Fold ABC transporter ATP-binding protein.
Amino acid sequence: MTNGGAPTAQPLLDVQDLAVEFRTRDGVAKAVNGVSYTVAAGQTLAVLGESGSGKSVTAQAVMGILDSPPGFVTGGRILFQGRDLLTLGKEERRRIRGAKMAMIFQDALSALNPVLSVGTQLGEMFRVHTGTSRKEARAKAVELMERVGIPAARARVGDYPHQFSGGMRQRIMIAMALALEPDLIIADEPTTALDVTVQAQVMDLLAELRREYRMGLILITHDLGVVADVADTIAVMYAGRVVETAPVHQLYKAPAHPYTRGLLESVPRLGHKGRELHAIKGLPPNLTAIPPGCAFHPRCPLARDVCHTDRPPLYDVGPGRTSACHFWKETLDGAR
Ligand SMILES: Nc1ncnc2c1ncn2[C@@H]1O[C@H](COP(=O)(O)OP(=O)(O)O)[C@@H](O)[C@H]1O
Ligand code: SF4
Ligand SMILES: [Mg+2]
């Protein structure tokens, strides 16, 4: 990546050319085909893309929770604090997953254990990983519940997940993720199941905690609207690949990839009522038969012959900016 010759600090997470495939009876689905992205300590990376673009599978590979079989990592490196996670044994990965990285899922109800109180589940995090006493773990659970904004935490520590609202359950899952003060949190569509006002509150909480704890945060979403205010950089994924990365405001102002431009144009804007939405025509490809050349070419308004045959590399298109489009310059100039 371009950095003007200045030495760059080692990123917290550096995913390089990651490939994951699912070997199923219906064929081999190439879910991730060369994903590269980095997250710096204390920074938020938003990973954006339509459903099925490989956002979650990439995250599962990073966390070491890939459903395998049928999923297999077939290439690339996942450097976390300088170490390639793919070379580590199961036990070591489990340790890292507990203490150094944590994940928040979309559906708190199925991620939490329905038959244990939230206090017990939060407390377990401390007891298992740090060997604190039951009483101490309980006190820490209450403290964490208070920190993530659960009203009357002391009175509710014995309640079960289903006794909380969707927004409050999501806060509990955030508390679980925070318990051991990890260096990296991956939040996979953390607010998708919530209504709009609660979405904003949960997003604000995540942003605030990320600052307070100086964690790296990966925020996975299919909704451009949610990430504008909280992300530092954005990686846009299409058909299992990162097709554009940029600092968030630059990406909004002038996208360097036609797919990103299509996504931006399909976001309804306030004050533009009645304006036609330019949703991207067509559908993402079947991952067992990804089109040759640029995978986006069947849907791309700019596609030319070369796009049908040559896979575009991820070009450096500016400081901290990349685009996997043969015609990135044209796209960028056209957007300015
Ligand atoms: N457990 C699985 N078994 C088989 N294929 C899977 C599995 N999980 C994911 N895939 C494949 O990987 C693709 C990408 O999935 P995913 O990363 O979940 O997309 P998203 O960008 O919506 O998070 C899916 O469309 C599917 O083809
Ligand atoms: S490489 Fe070609 S098909 Fe792909 S996004 Fe660029 S112009 Fe469109
Ligand atoms: Mg997903």
